[in-house]
Amino acid sequence: MQTINIELNKNQFLKSIRKLDEKDKLEIYEELKKSLFPKRFERLLKSTRTDELSFEEITKEVEEVRQKRYEEGKQDR
């Protein structure tokens, strides 16, 4: 396969995409989603990372919520 390099500015690129049929647009969309997901996920992880809570504190809170839900479920029977 031979490779061809073409230079387009953003507006030219967008204009070209607008001319594509729906199937081709969806294919490009799926590729963009795949390439952007890891970056977006990494940003989310960085934004939620904290040293203020320990794993033990989180586990304790989860167990308290589970216990409360369990007890509430038993009362509904």
Q: Can you walk me through this structure?
A:
The chain has helices at 10-18, 22-48, 55-75. It is built from three helices and no strands. The protein is mostly helical and 77 residues long. The longest helix has 27 residues, at 22-48. It starts with 9 loop residues before the first helix and ends with a helix. It is elongated, with a radius of gyration of 25 Å. The mean pLDDT is 90. It has one domain (10-75).
Largest sheet: none
Q: What's the tally of helices?
A: 3
* Helix fraction bin: over 70%
What do the pLDDT scores average to? 90
Low-confidence stretches: none
Q: Whole-Å distance between the termini?
A: 68 Å
- The structural domain count equals 1
Structural class: mainly alpha
Query: How many E-type strands?
Result: 0
Indicate the overall shape.
elongated
Over the alpha carbons, how many angstroms does the gyration radius reach?
25 Å
Order of helix and strand elements from N to C terminus: HHH
The share of residues in extended strands comes to: under 5%
Question: Key features?
Answer:
single chain; 77 residues; mainly alpha; 3 helices; elongated
Layout: helices, strands, pairs:
Elements: H1 10-18, H2 22-48, H3 55-75
Concise account of the structure shown:
This protein has helices at residues 10-18, 22-48, 55-75.
